Amino acid sequence: MANKYISKVREIDIATVAGNKTLAAAVDRRALERCRDAIEKLGVVHTPVIGTTKDGNRILLSGQCELTALRELGVKKMDAIEVNVADGGGTRAKLSLLLMSLREKPGALCEGLLLQEAVSAGVGRSEIQTMLGKSASWISNRISLVTRLDGNVYEMVKSGLLEARSAQEVARLPAEAQFAFAEAAVRDGLPKSAIELLVAGYNDETCPEAVKAQILSDPRAALKRMSDRRRSVNTERTNHKDNTAQEIIDGCIIAVKAQMATIYRVLCSLPTDDTELRGNTFKEVEAALLSLLSMVRGLIFPGENGGRQ
Hints:
The protein is of the alpha/beta class. It has three domains: 9-148, Alpha-Beta Complex (Conserved hypothetical protein from pyrococcus furiosus pfu- 392566-001, ParB domain), CATH 3.90.1530; 151-239, no CATH class; 270-309, no CATH class. Helices cover 65% and strands 8% of the residues. The chain is built from 15 helices and five strands. It has helices spanning 21-24, 29-42, 64-72, 89-102, 108-120, 125-132, 136-148, 151-158, 164-170, 175-188, 192-203, 209-217, 219-239, 241-268, 275-300, and strands spanning 9-13, 17-18, 49-52, 58-62, 77-84. Strand 3 (49-52) and strand 4 (58-62) form a beta hairpin. Helix 12 (209-217) packs across helix 13 (219-239). It is elongated and about 85 Å long.
């Protein structure tokens, strides 16, 4: 069979391409700046993919970061892979999922949005599983993340106020608390790591109501309060280190005695006619006990190479 060269790359006016709000949810400022730097030095490394609809409109299917960077650089034309999606939303959704499986993962939230769009367009979940090589639970978890996220918080992601990965953490909060917390987090300029800590603190069953209220209204102050509390707990643990160590040792001794009694009963109940089983079992028990005994003797008589001779 003769080799075939297939190319659908076209030169396209950037102004004619509509951006993709779903893909934009996964683009943060740092990624955009890296993309701009790469384009200035190397050109467009990952060619954007454009879908052309029946009415001639062009919709971005892949390459939101590249498209935005090119626009910011003032570029008027770009090379893009142009494909026909005139068959409707189902075709477009399938192509988006295929591209998602080939390119760098856009993040759980964006994946969930793409999956939800595909399901809404009539693509069956079993077909999505086959396309992506993912389990049914993985797909359900991604879609569940989208359905848990408050609509106002999602709008903050689409507008670029909140990074998608931070929104993933916000989605773990109760629905009624998400928007207030997201607004305060954006206002205070909190990174994802801080948002993750605050969300975990809020969801902790032992978290006082006063602290929960502060997390929603003044997260930066709440973060400092939680940090001070952790330091206090660590200091208290240090002060009681000796007592705690002794309690652990006492518990270990009690547990060892109980296990020894259990082992004795089990060994006595082994069938006497199976000499190979009894021999192998006794050897394993003996080796374990000798190892423990050697370690204990080494602690009692340090420096005597395995204990007192």
